[in-house]
Amino acid sequence: MKIATYNVNGVNGRLPVLLRWLKEAQPDIVCLQELKAPQERFPITEINEAGYQAIWKGQKSWNGVAILTKDLEITEVQRTLPGDNNDLQSRYIEAIIDQMVICCFYLPNGNPYPGEKFEYKLSWIKRLKKRSQQLIDMDLPAILIGDFNIIPTAEDVYKPERWENDALYRTEVRKAFQDLTRKGWIDSIRSLYPDEKIYTFWDYLYKAYERNAGIRLDHILLSPYLKSGLKSAGVDKYVRGWEKSSDHAPVWIELGRK
């Protein structure tokens, strides 16, 4: 089974890119972030015509998340990360697919640091850690997947010294990521490629993609239940080079089942 995450940076504006990639890559499950579309503007007709069904939570202008599946039933669990009834941002959607819990999210960026946006990011992470611990305690086959807006280590960023006071790389958020892995969540890409230079995002400015001056923000974390099933993983970096592409590239894993 092929499971992927892709920050599309505008699902309607980049729909041709998304559909082309779906046709070429043929993932079974896809988690999308940054739809930048209200609920009624999600392109479900085109997604269905491409062979996928979907659940999604849109938001006008910003945010938005979706889960797509090919020939697999989706049972929605929740579309809000528990813990804050006043949080109206569309950043989280959770479903059961093929007996796995899929937690798709677009974690807050948090910039500028310091400030309210960074504090919101930390509170959001705290809520995510609570939900993730529940899944670990239940020993479920579960996946935390999406744009984490966290650069885990210095190996995951071009020239890390430039990012020390950026909300993507602050000590607090890197520690939170490490806390997840210490609790048992497996960073799928790094578990297979511990020493390779791997990025998932390249800014549109300064020819970052051409220079491979990137950062790794998009992650697929597996619960211990799924660890033995991980067969392969990768980043479809070439998609970032397509015309009118997102500044992120799709990240995927191949998963066998027990």
TrEMBL record:
The record marks 248 as: Interaction with DNA substrate. It comes from the Bacteria. InterPro entries: AP_endonuc_1, AP_endonuclease_F1_BS, AP_endonuclease_F1_CS, Endo/exonu/phosph_ase_sf, Endo/exonuclease/phosphatase, ExoIII-like. Keywords: Hydrolase, Magnesium, Manganese, Metal-binding. Its cofactor is Mn(2+); Mg(2+). The record marks 149 as: Transition state stabilizer. Its EC number is 3.1.11.2. One of its GO terms (biological process) is DNA repair. Residues 4-248 form the Endonuclease/exonuclease/phosphatase domain. The record marks 218 as: Important for catalytic activity. Pfam families: Exo_endo_phos. Belongs to the DNA repair enzymes AP/ExoA family. This is Exodeoxyribonuclease III. The lineage of its organism: Bacteria, Pseudomonadati, Bacteroidota, Flavobacteriia, Flavobacteriales. The gene is xth.
